[in-house]
Specification:
single chain; alpha/beta; eight-stranded mixed β-sheet; five-stranded mixed β-sheet; 12 helices; globular
Length: 365
């Protein structure tokens, strides 16, 4: 076993709390890495092992990520925070892709779990008791499966969402998987890639032959939301700087405003957000720009988990103030009542078209 980094790793929450000032948000470096045995039979697995050793990160072998039950920590909260700094390197065994409406036709799985600490994140419940970060090394097999989906639907365009279960930009310096997918989709006449991120580490993607087949979106929000609910992520200005780089590199660009939260002063907060976007983004960004709008929602299970993991969070989850909305799989979520949801939708749409007349709003949900 290698030696740990001196001083260990801690999330840059101070920098994340201020959307303008402060040091640059650091790349994710796990404190502990697990390797599933077959992972080292793949070139990507070997490469990650070399990186882990070079960084001096302690690592262990495990027969399966499901058998990782001995993470340190005296309390559930401490174990959760340690798990968020733990990386598992393995294979994606299930190559049947889930649907990813309304963003895309399918989710393409290259990672699961996220190093960020966004209080509202749906991964709080979908990952359950396994909040550690997993990356998959069999990307050739994953791309071969994507090719089959593309061929089945041709000549229709098939879109793949790469950020359904993770933020892959925050892991790209470890895996290089996004670069592989971007180059792969660039060669596919009927294939398109999409992903969204809260991280600014995009420099390795700028020179790739994407052919406009990958749309990169950045998750943005009012300062109140970023400051209070998104620790461990890149600051607003870092994300916008990265968005400018992406636009200048010729990628189709998009923004997801999510979750849209009703708070005291929300009109001013979201108005300032869109005004700043309009002032800062380069002209290239407005040529093919999309917005996706997602209001805050939660389940009863999510509410309980979030209150346990972030007991001091200011996130409002009062069921009495919400409307119950049934989902596709027979499970419902609490969203804003129609009056509030319509007010949010109309206000944001007006401000978007005020600053970006040629932009498209893909959906509000």
């Amino acid at each position: 076993m290698s030696k740990p980094l001196e001083g260990g790793f801690s999330l840059n929450t101070a920098a994340s709390a201020n959307p303008i000032a402060g040091k640059r948000t650091k790349l994710f470096v796990p404190e502990l890495v697990y390797f599933e045995p077959n992972a080292l039979q793949y070139p990507k697995g070997e490469k990650i092992m070399q990186w882990v050793k070079a960084q001096g990160i302690p690592y262990q072998m495990t027969t399966s990520h499901n058998r990782i039950t001995n993470l340190p920590g005296e309390s559930d909260l401490e174990k959760y925070r340690i798990a968020k700094k733990t990386l598992v390197v393995g294979l994606r065994k299930t190559l049947k892709f889930d649907q990813s409406k309304p963003s895309a036709e399918y989710a393409i799985p290259i990672a699961t779990g996220c190093m960020g600490h966004c209080h509202y994140c749906y991964l709080q419940t979908t990952l359950g008791a396994k909040p550690y970060v997993r990356v998959y090394v069999n990307t050739d097999e994953i791309m071969a499966a994507a090719k089959r989906y593309i061929d089945e639907r041709a000549p229709e365009i098939t879109r793949f969402e790469a950020a359904c279960t993770s933020d892959p930009v925050g892991l790209e310096h470890i895996t290089g998987s996004l670069a592989e997918l971007i180059e792969f989709m660039g060669k596919e006449e009927y294939g398109r890639l999409r992903f969204v991120t809260k991280y600014h580490h995009v420099d390795s993607l700028l020179g790739l032959p994407h052919r406009g087949h990958t749309r990169i979106r950045f998750s943005v929000n009012a300062d109140y939301v970023i400051r209070n609910f998104e620790p461990g992520t890149s600051r607003f200005m870092e994300r916008i700087e990265a968005a400018g780089k992406i636009a200048k590199a010729g990628y189709p660009l998009g923004f997801i405003i999510a979750p849209i939260i009703w708070f005291d002063g929300w009109e001013q907060g979201y108005g300032e957000l869109l005004q700043r976007l309009g002032e800062i983004l380069p002209p290239e960004a407005a040529q093919d720009l999309t917005f996706e709008l997602i209001q805050h929602r939660f389940t009863k299970t999510a509410k309980n988990v979030i209150e346990q993991r972030y007991p001091k969070s200011k996130l409002e989850m009062d069921i009495a103030k919400r409307k119950y909305k049934w989902g596709r799989w027979g499970q419902g979520k609490y969203v804003y009542p129609d009056e509030k949801a319509n007010a949010l939708r109309m206000f944001l749409a007006e401000r978007i078209f005020e600053h970006f007349p040629a932009a498209a709003i893909d959906y509000f949900t």
